[in-house]
Design brief:
Length: 380
């Protein structure tokens, strides 16, 4: 259980003063911080096919990038390299716990927890990210510098897989120690160089851009065969310049499109579905033999049983239509299933005790059975 020691700040003040505005270092943000995983466990995850991992090394300013899965780390030596593993929260429950203290920000903003292990001198060099990130210092120490957005920074490509920026003037220049939390808003240059063997946890938040949203909307239109109705042109007046696409016509077509986007039901459905899709691999646990309502009730007679969500699964309740969205799929909720739907969306392991009241009602059992059969929850 991780709790942020905000000191003078509160989450409200943090959001007002820093979130997306200014970088912040919270010294000992987690008191007596205990790493949720070890460097060896991280190395083990980087050997797996399903996880996205990279090793970035530098030797007198010559940068190299190798992509996992890795078999052997000994070739990299003792210094000047860092191993980065994406979405470790999809594979390590303890690492996923690092998301909890930041739940004053809604779950739809979460991207992943990326974990890095760096040897002395290791780091990815000065760079920009598009996402908000809380970088937590685990074991070891690292020298972090963070600057402010600066259009004059040069974009550098020291390796085809590594984007960096030129040197920047830091507004934070500090050595992070276990439990320190460094918040970096998007597009703020930063650079962390390890002092000794160092673990860092980057709790990353996504904010979709219009390209992604428009493309997701187009997919919904195509998949569902909607939007085939053509623009209404009944009020056409005679033109004296047939070669011109007039401003009036442009505005008519533009408004036609805006009216589609103004459909709250369609947009909220598209958004909830898009925002629950994971960008990283998940371990979906499809049951070999599908559950039946009867078998689920039977399992839950055992008070020791847990119904657990798959690690990293994204779940949201869409306030517009009241439905539950899991990993891009929509599951309709009714007045009777709403309470269970919210419990599921909390993304916590559920005990038979917690589920007891739901199990009296068949449609709740059906809901539980269907999420188990979709492989999004499992019985443990
Ligand atoms: C890290 O090296 O742990 C974080 C990399 C980054 O700054 O994005
Ligand atoms: Co970064």
């Amino acid at each position: 259980m991780y709790t942020v020691n905000w000191g003078e700040l509160t989450p409200e003040k943090f959001l007002e003063e820093y979130w997306q505005k200014k970088p912040l270092l919270i010294k000992a943000g987690f008191e007596n911080f205990e790493d949720p995983l070890s460097a060896d466990e991280l190395a083990g995850l980087a050997m797996e096919e399903e996880l996205e991992s990279r090793i970035i090394s530098n030797n007198q300013n010559t940068w190299n990038v190798s992509h996992g899965p890795f078999e052997d780390f000994s070739t990299f030596g003792e210094n000047n390299w860092t191993l980065l593993v994406q979405a470790v929260n999809n594979w390590s429950e303890a690492t996923g716990q690092l998301l909890k203290p930041f739940q004053f920000i809604p779950n739809w903003r979460i991207d992943d927890v990326m974990v890095s292990f760096s040897t002395p001198g290791g780091g990815v060099g000065p760079h920009l990210d598009q996402y908000d990130v809380f970088i937590i210092q685990g074991e070891g120490k690292r020298h972090w510098k963070v600057g402010l957005p600066d259009a004059s920074l040069e974009q550098l490509l020291p390796h085809e897989d590594l984007k960096q920026v030129s040197a920047f003037k830091p507004v934070i220049d500090a050595i992070t120690e276990p439990g320190d939390i460094l918040y970096i808003p998007p597009n703020h240059p930063h650079d962390g160089s390890a002092i000794d063997n160092s673990l860092n946890y980057s709790v990353g938040f996504q904010a979709p851009n219009s390209q992604e949203l428009i493309s997701a909307l187009a997919d919904v239109f195509i998949d569902r065969n909607i939007g085939e109705q053509r623009v209404d042109d009944k009020d056409r007046q005679k033109t004296a310049s047939p070669e011109t696409l007039t401003k009036k016509d442009i505005s008519k077509l533009q408004n036609f499109l805006i009216s589609e986007i103004n459909d709250d039901n369609l947009m909220s459905d598209m958004l909830a579905s898009f925002l629950t899709r994971n960008h990283h691999a998940l371990e979906i646990l499809m049951p070999v033999n599908p559950f039946t309502e009867g078998s689920v009730v039977e399992y839950l007679k055992d008070p020791e049983i847990f119904v657990r969500p798959v690690l990293g699964i994204k779940v949201l309740i869409n306030e517009q239509n009241g439905d539950l969205y899991i990993n891009g799929d929509r599951v309709a909720l009714t007045d009777e299933t709403k309470e269970l739907g919210i419990l599921l969306a909390k993304n916590q392991p559920l005990t038979a005790e917690i589920l007891k009241s739901s199990l009296d009602c068949l449609i709740n059992v059906q809901l539980l059975t269907s999420v188990l059969n979709m492989g999004y929850w499992y019985i443990d």
